[in-house]
Amino acid sequence: MTPKLLTFMRLLREHGVRLSVAESLDALHSVSRIGLQDRELLRLALRTALIKSQADFATFDTLFERFFSLPRRKRRRRVRQRNTSHEGLGQRANPQSNGQPLRPTQPQSQPAQPPAIPHPAPEPPSPDAQEPSQSQEIKALIDLEHAWNQQLQKPLPSDVPHTTQTDGNRANTRIDREFPPDQLAALYREVERLVAPLLTRRALRYRRARRGQFDLRRTVLRSLRGGSEVPFALSYRRRPLGKLRLVVLCDVSGSVWHVSTFLLKLVHTLQAEFTQVRSLLFVSSIVEVTSLFRHMRFPDDFDTLRHYPNLNLFGYSDFGRAFYQFYRDLLGDLTRDTVLVILGDARNNAFDPQEWTLEEIRQRCRRLIWLNPEPRQEWNQDDSVMEVYAPFCDAVLECWTMEHLVQAADVLLQV
Amino acid sequence: MNAIASTTLSPASRDLSSIDDVIERFAAVDYICNKETATAVFLMTQLQRPLLVEGPPGVGKTELAKVLAQTMDHSLIRLQCYEGLDEAKALYEWEYSKQLLYVQMLKDKLGALLADTASLSDAVSMLQQHESAFFSRHFLLPRPLLQAILSPQPTVLLIDEIDRAEQEFEAFLLETLSDFQVSIPELGTLRAVQRPLVVLTSNATRNLSEALKRRCFFLYIDHPSLDTELHIVQRKVPHVDQRLATQIVQFVQRVRQLHLRKTPSISETLDWALALVVLGASVLSRDLITETLNILLKDKDDIARALDEAVR
Questions:
Q1: What is the DSSP pairing of strand A286-288 with strand A274-282?
Q2: Backbone Cα Rg of chain B
Q3: Do B79 and B145 touch, CB atoms closer than 8 A?
Q4: A253 at the B interface (CB within 8 A)?
Q5: What's the rounded mean pLDDT across residues A329-347?
Q6: Is-contact B125 B116, C-beta < 8 A?
Q7: CA B274, B279, B282, B288 torsion: positive or negative?
């Protein structure tokens, strides 16, 4: 069974599930405890050991279905072959041999199996002819693996090898264009990698702030006041750092869609750093998608956003209207601890910019950061009204490469 | 922070022998679980791996650890995670004030000890010989992790809501979970007498690190299916009318489909069922729902939406 399981694990890896060797070993051990009699139990055992995120459950289940319901004939033949050859070798990997009384009602499945189809491989091996039987088995296994691979590879959408590590410097990659899915996944991982040092730095800051600095003066004073020369309780000087709330307002009209996906990915990576994160999308009116992100898998699920109700991706972007809607419906949700991030090119299609709403919004939140997915020289050209909105923002940043994205993350993480 | 020792005695054999055995023995203590849960629990006890349990609040993640401890007749040690939890709160601490207190009380004794010494450096080296007296197990305050490691009896270590602690704490936890030994500079390395069974729970408010996940088995517990929930209600609310129970559970299941701020958990279903039984209801009428829905749902808007649903 082992080679087949290993093939299965390879298949999982190819579909983007991260598996370590330790996990594969765990899975093999689990299967040896569970046995192979019950397909459902096999599925659950493998899933428990291999899959560590609910988002990957669907992938796993689909692949399991596909993998473990392959042509009956071949499977049966293989079981038979393994059975005989193992008995010949006298070292069956039998679950019962571990002293685990597993499902005593069910007999060993192998003997019960009828030798339905006489397999084309030569005669069943005799106990003293171990060498040939083993090589036969290996040969048969290789054949089977080819057969499986052919079967499995047919429906796979992409078999392009991942080019994650090969092209090293991605910081200058432009993110305002479309990428093929596998490259996109690699880029998303890159976002996580680039942001990681920022998170470490921030964690350190919080840690220090929490512990505070030792305060000798206060320690001594306090102990003297209590009449003791030896300070029993130490005093610290603390300056507590609270976490902030984040509201992201993304323009997702055609021109900005790609950068928006990257920003959302960034926010997804940073979410632990805020007490609350809300994601809002708009073209001309605002739609809240926060709940969608609970079980989001990047990048596969992004396309679900495209079909989100009330989100007309083919409309004209209208910042004024979106801001007015925000002002009307969401102003009460802003607090002194809220950081508002707006992503948009400020191309208002000659609608009324209604900048007074943005001013009102600015007064209700801690900081307002605008990210513009266009190079700076293109701002305020044609229908772009960046300069109308800019006075109300604490920071206006360009955001069209990976590096810009990381800079934006840095600004976001400032308290 | 506190250790809860459950002392209920279980049937003669402690080890879980098969997946069906898990289901049966959990059911015996009123914990209804499905095959997924049972498989995960069985495998974790067999292979001695930590089990990471994820799922929405109130589906019985913490309860799972308690029940596991009870069925296997282990004591339960619980570490509740929160923002700002660090090693001192999780592993061990020197009892600084107790040390100082002893120094104060032993002042005379120390004076007598140091009376013969000629110089200051002699006195220091003399004191150093006795240093271990103040850094011994007497002054060590073991926190849950160390308690679990030092415990001579088998234990279940429950690390609750791990997603609330910071990422560095996770990294620290990894070290402990992989070898179950702790190095205390003053005392040397302390090794686990009994490898504790570790259950970690998480509400998935943030992604846990890959390294931690890799070392654990994973179980996702979702809200129960209609049958399971009905079963649970009948178990836990003994006097409930069959028809009423069905209606309650059906309604709760429907409410969960709505996009509410806070989805009702099993314990809230049970509270509601209990309340209805106390009120002597036999049928779930609309008026009754209107009057008692605040037991099931705790948010004004949620209640309004659920009432809309009830009308339909």
A1: antiparallel
A2: 26
A3: yes
A4: no
A5: 88
A6: no
A7: negative
Q: Residue B81: which pLDDT band, with cuts at 50, 70 and 90? A: very high
Best of B96, B217, B219, B220 to substitute, by most chain A Cβ atoms within 10 angstroms, is B217
Q: Is the Cβ–Cβ distance between A338 and A362 less than 8 Å?
A: no
User: 3-class SS at A215?
Assistant: coil
Q: Are B81 and B159 in contact (CB under 8 A)?
A: yes
- A232 closest CB neighbour out of B97, B206, B220: B97
Residue B16, burial from CB neighbour count under 10 angstroms (0-12, 13-18, 19+): buried
The set of residues, in sequence order, having a beta carbon less than 8 Å from that of A258 and lying 6+ positions away, is A175, A176, A177, A178, A179
Given a cut of 90, is residue B80 above it in pLDDT?
yes
What is the per-residue pLDDT across B267-291, written as a single tens digit (0 to 9) for each? 899 999 999 999 888 888 888 888 8
User: Which residue would you say has higher pLDDT here, A227 or A13?
Assistant: A13
Tell me the sheet residues that pair with A244. A274
**CB pair distance less than 8 Å for A272 and B220:** no
The question of ipTM being above 0.95 is answered as no
Contact A45 B100 (CB under 8 A): no
**Dist. CA B192–CA A164, nearest whole Å:** 41
Contact predicate B226/B19, CB 8 Å: no
Determine the residue type at B163: D
Q: What is the pLDDT of residue A132?
A: 46
**Any CB–CB contact under 8 A between A58 and chain B?**
no
For chain A, the average pLDDT equals 76
- Taking CB atoms and an 8 Å cutoff, what residues of chain B touch A29? 47
Give the distance from residue B34's alpha carbon to the nearest chain A alpha carbon, in angstroms.
11
Closest CA to A322 of A302, A293, A351: A351
| Confidence at residue A71, expressed as pLDDT on a 0 to 100 scale | 56
| Residue pLDDT, tens place only, A18-71 | 888 889 999 999 999 888 888 889 999 999 999 988 878 888 998 998 888 765
- Reported as half-sphere exposure (CB side, CA atoms, 13 A), residue B134 has a value of 17
Cβ pair A310, A287 in contact under 8 A = yes
- The CA-atom distances, in angstroms, between A358 and each of A323, A328, A347, A366 are 6, 11, 16, 13
Beta bridge partners of A32: none
Identify all chain A residues contacting B110, using CB atoms and an 8 Å cutoff: none
pLDDT exceeds cutoff 60 at B118: yes
Pair A86, A92: CB distance under 8 Å: yes
pTM of the model: 0.65
Distance CA B269, CA B252 (A): 7
Question: Which candidate in B16, B19, B162 is best for mutational testing of the A interface (most A CBs within 10 A)?
Answer: B19
| Alpha carbon of A100: minimum distance to chain B alpha carbons (Å) | 7
Q: How far apart are CA A247 and CA A241, in angstroms?
A: 19
Q: What is the DSSP letter of B156?
A: E
Chain-chain contact of A230 with B100 (C-beta, under 8 angstroms): yes
A116 pairs with which residues across the strands?
none
Place B51 in a pLDDT band, splitting at 50, 70 and 90.
very high
**Nearest 10 degrees: Cα torsion B14, B17, B21, B22:** 70
Our separate counts of H helices and E strands in chain A read: 15, 8
Distance from CA of B40 to the nearest CA of A (A): 6
Binned at pLDDT 50, 70 and 90, residue A72 comes out as low
Label residue A411 exposed, middle or buried (CB < 10 Å: 0-12, 13-18, 19+).
middle
Q: Percentage of chain A with pLDDT > 90? A: 14
With an 8 Å Cβ cutoff, is A25 touching chain B? no
Has residue A93 got a pLDDT over 50? no
Return the residue in B24, B36, B37, B42 with the most chain A beta carbons within 10 A, the one to mutate for interface testing: B42
Average the pLDDT over A82-111 and give the result: 42
Residues A41, B18: C-beta atoms closer than 8 Å: no
